[in-house]
Amino acid sequence: MKLIKEPLLHFLMIGAALFALYAWVNPESLGDDTQILVDAGRINQLQENFHRTWNRPPNSNELQELIDGFVIEEILYRQALAMGLDKDDSLIRRRLRQKMEFITADAVALYEASDDELQTYLDENPESFTRDAVYSFEQIYISTDRPSAELQSAVAEIEKSLHSGVDVPGDTSLLPQSFQQVAAFEVNRTFGSGFTRALDQAPIKQWSKPVSSDYGIHFVRLQARQSAQLPALADVRAAVEREWQNAKNQEVKAALLNDLKSGYRIVIESTPQAQQKGNI
Fold first, then answer.
1. 270 φ, ψ to 5°?
2. Which of 43, 52, 96, 181 has the fewest Cβ atoms within 10 angstroms?
């Protein structure tokens, strides 16, 4: 009973059904190769393609031209296959491979994941959905474009003033003095990689010790800090379902390919160069 409930088995069954469905809706692939059937479905497809291109339906003459064009294309296509022109053509091989992969992907698209499956995927892949830490803080900037002794004196004087409760303007810069609800990646992009590490260690609502950045030195007073967190499934369900389907598509494709490969005898011959290397 456990095997029956296994989602991968469902996907394989759906995939097999899709291949069977393709043969059913394309009987010409299995039947008389001398008959070219232009049925109502094919005519509707030709009309829809024309409408998408020209924003209007084809008239009777245009429709007949579309049908004649399809018949000629089908004749030449079958003649090309009969002559083996599709053999060893990398473009054709690549396109046919893509179409087979599309059929495989449809197997996953037809399956709707349960909340339990999505929750499991979320728990097993937290790095893809964890929300960045968020910070609110103010900063005072000190330029390092001065002699070392003067810089050390300025930093010490400002630190003393801040701890005494005296407001200090700091040096002029293009950096904002206040940041509200800014994500960690944005903070690091503004001040340089790793600046958030200092914010994670800074006390709340107190001026920090001097912090270095790509621009100079800063004193930071953190107002609020919200750590990185994994959101609830309900908040990121669409994203989780999208990634889950991508992962399942790869899993199903691999399983189907392994199943198909079992029907072939694969022989890989060594090239003369490989044989020569093996004898060295």
1. -75, 140
2. 52
Is residue 244 within 8 A of residue 118, CB to CB? The reply is yes
pTM for the whole structure = 0.55
Cβ–Cβ under 8 Å, residues 134 and 228:
no
Confidence of residue 95 (pLDDT cuts 50, 70, 90): confident
Residues in the chain: 280
Distance CA 200, CA 221 (A): 12
Q: Measure the CA–CA gap between 246 and 242, rounded to whole angstroms.
A: 6
**What is the token pair recorded at 87?**
């053999």
Tally Cβ neighbours within 10 Å of residue 259.
12
Residue showing tokens 């940041």? 179
Contact status, residue 58 vs residue 69, Cβ threshold 8 Å: no
Q: Which helix (H) or strand (E) holds 134?
A: strand 134-143
Residue ranges of domains in the chain, CATH in brackets = 7-123+243-259 (no CATH), 134-226 (3.10.50.40)
> Looking up tokens 């609110």, which residue turns up?
136
Name the residue type at position 258. Answer: N
Model confidence pLDDT, tens digit, residues 209-220: 999 999 999 999
What is the average pLDDT value for the chain, to the nearest integer? 84
Confidence bin at 189 (pLDDT 50/70/90): very high
Name which of 114, 135, 111, 118 is nearest 232 in CA terms.
118
